[in-house]
Amino acid sequence: MFKLNSTPSLLWKSVLLVLMGMLVGASPAQPAPPPPSLPAPLHWTRRPLYAPHDFLPTTAALKVDSHDQPHLAYGGEQLYYATSAEAGWKVEVVDPAPNSGAQAVLALDSSDQPHILYRDTVSDTVKYAHRAGGEWLIQPVTIGNDQPEEYSFTLTSDDRPCLSYYESTQGALKIACWDGSGWQSQIIETYIEQEAVVAEQPDASDPALPPPPPPRSFLSSLALDEANAPRLAIIDQYSASLQYA
Predict the structure, then answer these.
(1) Distances in Å between the alpha carbon of 179 and those of 68, 86, 135, 222, 224?
(2) Which of 28, 70, 151, 224 is deepest in the core (most CB within 10 A)?
(3) How many Å apart are CA 85 and CA 107, to the nearest integer?
(4) In this predicted structure, which of 28-32, 62-66, 145-149 has the lowest mean pLDDT?
């Protein structure tokens, strides 16, 4: 049996020996891993798009197909469609009507065929063009008496066109899809403006007066999910708000 006054000394010697062995056998501390390296700066290569015209397009829409080839729709003088080719760009006149092609929006279907929604500014008509069998088919977008203004455009999983648009005569944001024989539309949101009756017209130059509110209108961006259900990003210009529906 150990004496009471000798036990602590032996215990401490044993603990110190164990600790020294652990320190001697311990591996040196590993340095911290380096931070992830940043990707190399992108190198941009620009190619001029030569076409037999000398106007500046008012709009251009770009899509990349399943083979990583660019497709471009643009216009303002006429509606043009361009694809990349070995010798440069292949350019087609889609709609030769004067002053057509404004607000062009391009979508590619499951076969990489182009579908274009655009405006003919002479007739103030929204048109839909798509290529089938090597030919361009063009039709006006007739949705009752609606006059689509700002619009967004996409295709369903079975390649049917859909658009969201603002209709100013009703003050409404709508969505419409082609069902094979016509456009079926639905109101998403609408505003009914009430006239303000004032007894006396204030001086518009008075700096104390708040600025007048902007006109009621909507800007939208349309996408469809796997079930072809619409998803929308909406800018309400009157309330200055961004919404998701």
Answers:
(1) 30, 38, 21, 18, 15
(2) 151
(3) 19
(4) 28-32
CATH number at residue 77: 2.130.10.10
**What are the counts of helices (DSSP H) followed by strands (DSSP E) for the chain?**
1, 15
Given a cut of 50, whether residue 236 has pLDDT beyond it is yes
pLDDT single digits (tens) 83-135: 987 777 899 999 999 989 999 999 999 999 999 999 999 999 999 999 988 89
Does 169 reside within a domain? yes
Q: Mean pLDDT score of the chain, rounded to an integer?
A: 80
DSSP 62-75: EEE-TTS-EEEEEE
Written as six digits, the tokens of 134 are: 């090597």
Name which residue leads in pLDDT, 46 or 213: 46
Instruction: Tell whether 29 is covered by a domain.
Output: no
What is the rounded CA–CA span in Å between residue 99 and residue 75? Answer: 8
User: Is 13 within the bounds of a domain?
Assistant: no
The long-range contacts involving 146-151, CB below 8 angstroms and separated by at least 24 positions, are 146/170, 146/174, 146/176, 146/185, 149/217, 150/217, 150/218, 150/219, 150/220, 151/103, 151/105, 151/117, 151/126, 151/220
In the chain, the number of structural domains is: 1
The residue segments making up the domain with residue 238 are: 56-244
For 54-58, 80-84, 180-184, which range has the lowest pLDDT when averaged over its residues?
A: 54-58
